[in-house]
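Action item from last meeting closed. Structure (263 res):
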């Protein structure tokens, strides 16, 4: 098993991405600590993991609350003996669907400031324990920040800021045995809402009135592989990046965009 005897915190563990990563970590032997604001969704993921023979615990934690994040990490480290991996899968309340010229600054900046705060607080909380033990991996997820799309507000700016913060953490923690890496992806089919008019939710520049299926087909056409990564594949790549197999990798990312994003 790639993560046998490892302890992993998954922030936003009740969501689709966080849940997929948590399940993948558990399948590979990690004990998973799911953290998030909604206990019901966290408990649902934890029960699935336990039913499959894994080990999972849950805790209600607001990742924007500095004290709560620190206390939770301290409690996990004390109980488990270490924090070996963290994964930040927190949704940052993107405001999309408007041109920048018509958007309020607060709506543009909300996802950027929220991402910067929760990324910093969660990374700092686990880094203190990882540095003390001389090892650890901090993981998160972004999108194609080098691209630009109409009417998506501050989303791409937030991705760029997350990656810049990750590089800064990596530069400071690398000599102390801690790696910082991330996944870079495009849309994940399972996370696209089935609303009949997906553009109203996605705000990604497709023409008005496109269905979910049409949006997915359009995304697939923009990839080299003519498909999109699945949540299961995302979980498997996250598991590899958190394992010793990716030991030489830090301050960099795994590109799981199926060729939509070229390095």
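Sequence:
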């Amino acid at each position: 098993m790639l993560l046998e005897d490892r302890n992993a915190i998954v922030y936003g563990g009740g969501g689709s991405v966080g849940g997929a990563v948590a399940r993948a970590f558990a399948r590979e032997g990690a004990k998973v600590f799911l953290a998030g604001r909604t206990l019901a969704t966290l408990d649902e993921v934890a029960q699935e993991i336990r039913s499959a023979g894994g080990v999972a615990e849950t805790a209600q934690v607001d990742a924007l609350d500095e004290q709560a994040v620190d206390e939770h990490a301290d409690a996990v480290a004390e109980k488990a003996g270490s924090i070996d991996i963290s994964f930040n899968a927190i949704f940052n309340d993107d405001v999309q669907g408007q041109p920048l010229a018509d958007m309020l600054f607060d709506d543009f900046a909300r996802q950027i400031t929220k991402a910067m705060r929760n990324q910093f607080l969660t990374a700092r909380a686990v880094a203190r324990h990882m540095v003390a033990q001389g090892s650890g991996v901090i993981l998160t997820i972004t999108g194609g920040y080098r691209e630009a799309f109409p009417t998506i507000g501050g989303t791409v700016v937030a991705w760029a800021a997350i990656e810049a913060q990750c590089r800064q953490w990596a530069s400071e923690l690398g000599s102390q045995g801690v790696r910082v890496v991330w996944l870079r992806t495009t849309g994940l089919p399972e996370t696209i809402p089935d609303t009949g008019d997906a553009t109203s939710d996605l705000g990604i520049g497709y023409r008005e009135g496109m269905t979910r299926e049409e949006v997915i087909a359009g995304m697939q056409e923009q990839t080299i592989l003519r498909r999109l990564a699945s949540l299961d594949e995302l979980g498997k790549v996250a598991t590899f990046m958190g394992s010793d197999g990716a030991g030489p990798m830090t301050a960099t990312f795994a590109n799981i965009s199926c060729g939509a994003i070229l390095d």
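Note appended to the action item: The domain at 7-192+230-255 is CATH 3.40.50.720 (Rossmann fold).
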